[in-house]
Amino acid sequence: EFNLPKRYQTPPAQLLPAKNGEEPTMQFLLEVVEILTSYIRKTFDRSTKVLDFHHPHQLLEGIEGFNLELSDQPESLEQILVDCRDTLKYGVRTGHPRFFNQLSTGLDIVGLVHLALQVSLLLVWFRFTYEIAPVFVLMEQLTLKKMREIVGWPDGEGDGIFSPGGAISNMYSVMIARYKFFPEVKTKGMAAAPRLVLFTSEHSHYSIKKASAALGFGTENLILLNTDERGRVIPADLEAKVIEAKRKGYVPLFVTATAGTTVYGAFDPINEIADICEKYNMWLHVDGAWGGGLLMSRKHRHKLNGVERANSVTWNPHKMMGVPLQCSAILVRERGLLQGCNSMCAGYLFQPDKQYDVTYDTGDKAIQCGRHVDIFKFWLMWKAKGTVGFEQHIDKCLDLSAYLYNKIKNREGFEMPQHTNVCFWYIPPSLRSLPDGEERRQRLHKVAPKIKAMMMESGTTMVGYQPQGDKVNFFRMVISNPAATRSDIDFLVEEIERLGHDL
Amino acid sequence: EFNLPKRYQTPPAQLLPAKNGEEPTMQFLLEVVEILTSYIRKTFDRSTKVLDFHHPHQLLEGIEGFNLELSDQPESLEQILVDCRDTLKYGVRTGHPRFFNQLSTGLDIVGLVHLALQVSLLLVWFRFTYEIAPVFVLMEQLTLKKMREIVGWPDGEGDGIFSPGGAISNMYSVMIARYKFFPEVKTKGMAAAPRLVLFTSEHSHYSIKKASAALGFGTENLILLNTDERGRVIPADLEAKVIEAKRKGYVPLFVTATAGTTVYGAFDPINEIADICEKYNMWLHVDGAWGGGLLMSRKHRHKLNGVERANSVTWNPHKMMGVPLQCSAILVRERGLLQGCNSMCAGYLFQPDKQYDVTYDTGDKAIQCGRHVDIFKFWLMWKAKGTVGFEQHIDKCLDLSAYLYNKIKNREGFEMPQHTNVCFWYIPPSLRSLPDGEERRQRLHKVAPKIKAMMMESGTTMVGYQPQGDKVNFFRMVISNPAATRSDIDFLVEEIERLGHDL
Predict the structure, then answer these.
(1) Fewer CB in 10 Å around end: N or C, chain A?
(2) Which residues carry this modification: N6-(pyridoxal phosphate)lysine (chains A, B) (predicted)?
(3) Which of B347, B357, B387 lies closest to A466 in CB terms?
C-alpha cells in the first residue's frame, strides 16, 4: 500500500467544493485511482478470496475500525481513503473469475472505461433532451436501432428506450400493450377497460407479477402457464387458458414468452405462442432480459426463433453480454406507442421552441424524468468488441456451460435435470444410498444452503441455489463472466465436493 | 494531449476479456484516467466553453471523424481512446461553474470518487441481498434512517429505499398509499377499489401525473389544486375539492405537497395540508425531490415545516445536495408497507435458509429486481462533508440565489415574479416602451428561446427557460453547483444583456 501525505489530514469540506479542479483534490483523485487499479489487479488473481464474509452485526459494530455511521463533522481525506479501501475489502468481488452467483458477473475493461468517463462527464442529471445530452441521445438512438435490426424488424424500425433494469422494461411492455388496446385507461383509469388478463410462464421472472400488481391489473389476473419438463411454456395450455378467460368474459391482453427463464434458462417456443397471439389479437412480449444476448450469436440465436414476431422485447445487455449494470432496453415494434403511453407534455421540460430538431428529445417517452446514462458503456463496448466480439463472448459462455454439463453428467454424487442453465444437486456420500422419498428430499434440500454458507465463509467461490416447484434446493450455474475458464469450472466442482463430502 | 504507444493499435477484442488485469489493459485504463483528469481540470476553467453545440444531423454525419455508428468488427484501443475524447468534446460540461440549466449541476470530487470506486467494485448486478452487497445494504439502511431522523420521525423509525429517480420515488408513494387503504388491489386490480382520486398542485412535477396514468388511476382522477401568487397550494382549494369528490361518490386517497416546485421553487404549506389529510383520512406525500435538501439547513428547513406529519417523503440528494445522479430516496413512515406492497416472495431470489439474518435482504421491497448502487457515493460524501458540510452547501446555494435576486430586482430590463427559484424575464430595449398587452407578450415569449439558442451556440453559459400558466417564456435560475460564485452570477446577467440587447 502507499503512504498518505500529510495534506490529507485536511478535512475535505475545506477543500471542497470551492477548490474542485485544484491540485490537492486532483491528487486525491489520483490516489483513489491507485486504490482502484490495485483492486482490479487483485480481482483477477485467483488466489484472492471472492469475499471476506462477515455477519451484519459484525459490520455494524465496526469491525477493525470500519465505521459505517454518518456524523455531523467531516472526516479527513485520509479517513475517506481508508473508508474506500474498507468498502472494497468487505464487498463481494463480483468480477472474480470464480464468482458464478448471478446472471451477470465479470468485468469488462471497456465497461470500466465508461464508468471512469462517466466520472468526468459529471453525469449528474439527464432529462434526455438533446440539449443536455446530445451525444448520448444519438448513441441511444443508433444502438436501439441496431438492436431492433438484430431482433429482425425490417430496417430496425420501431422504438425503444433504456430503462433501469429488466423489471422496469417488462413493466413498460405491459403499459404499452394496455395503451395500444385501451388508450383511454391513461386518462380514465382501469375502470374504463373490461377485466383484462395477462399470461406468462409459471417460470417467468417475478417482475411480470410485480407489474400486474403495480399497474392495477391485480396478480390474480396474471394467469400462469404450465411448462414442459424442460421448463418451456406449453402452447396448448396457453390456448386453453385464453379460451377459458374469454368464456368468463375477460379480455386476454398480453402474453410474455420468456427467452431464458431465471432458473432453468428455458426458452419458450416463440413462434407457436405468436400464432396464438395473432389468432386472439393479444400483445406478444418477449422477455429476453437474460437470453436476449443469444441474438448476437449465429450459433445460438435459433433459440429465439420467432422473436421478430413480438410486439415488444426486453433485452438486458447487462446480463449475458457482460455490460456493467445497469443496461436494459425495452424495444417496441410499433413506433409512437411509447410516446403516446407516457407523454404528459410538460411544457417546462420539453419546450417546442428550441433551435434544434426536438424530435431528438426522448425524455417524455420515459416513466422517469432524469435518467442515468446507461448507453455510453454499451456503445463503447460495442465499438471495442464489434458485433463479432459479443458473438465470441456469448459462444464462449455457452461452451463453458456445455463443458460443465459434460463434466458432471456422469460424475458420482451429481444429479441434474435437462436445462440450458446448468442446474444440479450435489449428493453427499451419506445420502447416495438413500432411496428416493421424503427423507432424502428433506436432507438434500439442506445440502446446497450448507455448502453455500461454507463457500461464503471460506470465500473461495460463489454459486447460487434455489428450489423450484417440487424440486428441493439445487445449484444453478450461470456463466457470463468473460474471465472464467475451464479451470475455474473444475475448481467449482471440486470445491463443492470438498465442502459437501461430509454432510 | 499525449501520444499513444503502438500497442494501442491492437484491437481490444484481442486483449479482452481474456487478459483483464494484465498490463496492457491496466495501462489502457490509466490512459483513460489521464483523459479524465485533464477533462476535469478544464471543466473548472471558466475560459472553456460550457458546450460545443452541433445539430443532430451534424453529429450523425460524423463531424471531424467522430463516428457514432456501430460496426461488426472491433476498433483498436487507439480508436476507443479517440472515441472517449470525442464523447467528452461534444458533451455538455454540466459541472462547469456557469451551467445553471437544471435542478442539479456541479461536480463533487467525493461523488467522483464513488464513481471511480464503483468501477473497481464492478457493480455489475445488485439484487440487494446482504449476500451480494453486504456493505451497501448496511450503508443504505443507516443512511435512510439518518434521513428519516432529519425528516423528524421519532428515532428515525420507518422504512425506505433508493430508487432510480424522483419520478419512480413518487410512483412508489402512490402505490404504497393504495396498498395501505386498499390492499386487495394488489391481487384483484383496480376493479376491487372504488373510484379513487389523487390531489396535487397545478405546479407539481409531472411524475405524479405519469404515476396516475401508469398505476391505473387515470390522469382525470388526479385533481389539480390552485396555487397562490407565489405558486403554493391553497389549502382551502384542497378541502373544497375533497368535499366535491366525496359528494360525487369518489374516494379521496392521496395528496402530494410539493416542497420545491420544479419551476418556481414554491413550498406548499405542509401543516395546513396535513390537517386536511388527517380530517379526511388521506395519505400525505411530500415531494421534496428538489427542496428536500433544505432539511439539512437549520436556517432554511422551516420551509418544510410539517414534513414530519407526512406518510411518505421523496428526497433526491442528487438535486440540491449535489450528489451525482442517480440518488433518490422514498421514505415511508409506517414500516412494513413497502414490503407488503411489492413483495412477491420469489423463492429463487430470496432464500429464507441462508446462514445470515435475512431481514437485511431488501430486494423484495423494490419494484426493480437488480438495482444500481446509488448509496455509496452519497454515504461517502456524507462522511467527507459531515452533516455540517451539506448544510454549508445548501446555505451557500441559497445565498447565491438571494444575491442574484437582489442584483436584478431593480435592474433595468429585468422583471420577475416573487419565487424561491429566481425566475425572470429579460426585456430587450426594443420592448421596454411597449405597453402591456398581447403584442408585448408575444414578442417577449420569443426572447428567452432566442437568447438560449445564442448561449448554446456560443457555449458561454446555460440557463433554463419555460412558460408557466399564463406567463410567457421566462428564465429560471437554479443554483446547486458548488463551484458557482458571485462572479458567475454577474457573468450570467451580463451575458443575457449582451446577447439579448438587440432583440
Answers:
(1) N
(2) 319
(3) B347
Contact B218 A125 (CB under 8 A): no
ipTM exceeding the 0.85 mark:
no
One domain, residues A411 and A466: yes
Q: How far is CA B469 from CA A40, A469, B203, B446, B473, in A?
A: 53, 57, 9, 16, 10
Same domain, A337 and A460: no
Q: Best interface-test mutation with A: which of B10, B14, B20, B385 has the largest number of A CBs within 10 A?
A: B20
Q: At what angle do helices B486-500 and B447-458 cross, to 10 degrees?
A: 110
CA–CA distances in Å: residue A284 to residues A287, B134, B149: 10, 38, 47
Question: Based on the domain organization, do B178 and B314 belong to the same domain?
Answer: yes
d(CA A378, CA A394): 15
Partner residue facing B187 (CB), from A218, A349, A379: A218
B116 phi, psi to nearest 5 deg: -65, -40
Domains: count for chain A: 2
Instruction: Please give the grid coordinates belonging to residue A399.
Output: 461452451
pLDDT in tens, chain A (503 residues): 334 444 444 444 444 433 444 555 566 666 766 776 677 667 667 777 777 777 777 877 877 787 877 877 777 777 777 877 787 777 766 667 676 665 545 555 555 555 555 444 433 334 445 666 667 778 888 899 999 999 999 999 999 999 988 899 999 999 999 999 999 999 999 999 999 999 999 989 889 999 999 999 999 999 999 999 888 999 999 999 999 999 999 999 999 999 998 888 889 999 999 999 999 999 999 999 989 999 999 999 999 999 999 999 999 987 778 776 678 999 999 998 998 888 876 554 455 566 666 566 666 788 777 777 777 778 777 877 788 888 988 888 888 888 888 888 888 888 876 566 788 889 999 999 999 899 999 999 999 999 988 888 888 888 888 888 788 898 888 777 766 788 888 888 999 999 999 98
* Residues B339 and B467 grouped into a single domain: no
In 3D space, the residue among A316, A309, A477, A150 whose CA is nearest the CA of residue B369 turns out to be A316
Nearest-angstrom CA–CA distance, B228 and A453: 60
Cross-chain Cβ contact B219/A186 below 8 Å:
yes
Residue A303 lies in a domain: yes
Of A19, A121, A373, residue with least CA distance to B40: A121
Q: Domain of residue A491: give its range.
A: 385-500
